[in-house]
Amino acid sequence: MYQPKLLxxxxxxxxxxxxxxxxxxxxxxxGVLVGVSSGAYWGYAVLTAIGGVIAGFEHQDGWGxxxxxxxxxxxxxxxxxIVHAIAGTHAKVSLGSFPPFLVVITAIAGMLLSAGGGxxxxxxxxxxxxxxxxxxx
Length: 137
Hints:
The chain has one domain. The chain is built from four helices and no strands. The protein has helices at 12-33, 38-56, 62-87, 101-133. The chain starts with 11 loop residues before the first helix and ends with a helix.
């Protein structure tokens, strides 16, 4: 069973890197890809979504994962828009009629994905504890 070290048990610099720097870098990469290819952007979006679920495993439950996902998703979305603006390319994917709203969308998506990961991790831990509590005959 996948049991990562919980985010709360990590040092503050590790927490900053995992919760802020990595989502910013991921968003920056997405910001470049959004102006290059829609297929590359959507493929990368799927990978980052999987990463959001896996990040939720570093929390005690879905609530902790939701908090982290909300912040990480907002950082991701902001970095995407900033880098896309710096790159100055035409978006191959629609950013909506009001692109800054994308930050809200990515924050909500990040919250839901990480909450799901946190909930899955909690269920795995509970099942493992239940199996360990059953006496072997």
